[in-house]
Amino acid sequence: MCRLITISGWMNLHQTIFLMTYPTQTISWTLYQIQI
User: Fold this and answer.
1) Would you give the end-to-end CA distance of the chain in angstroms?
2) pTM of the model
3) How far apart are CA 29 and CA 32, in angstroms?
4) What is the distance between the alpha carbons of residues 27 and 18, in angstroms, rounded to a whole number?
5) Domain parsing of the chain, residue ranges
């Protein structure tokens, strides 16, 4: 049971980090394309 909570908590953390970093990656990729 403890392991299930850890896995689901880890997935939530990973999803939160992805949602936080995804817009930043999109913006930097757009700026990168503009420079070319």
Assistant:
1) 52
2) 0.46
3) 5
4) 14
5) 1-36
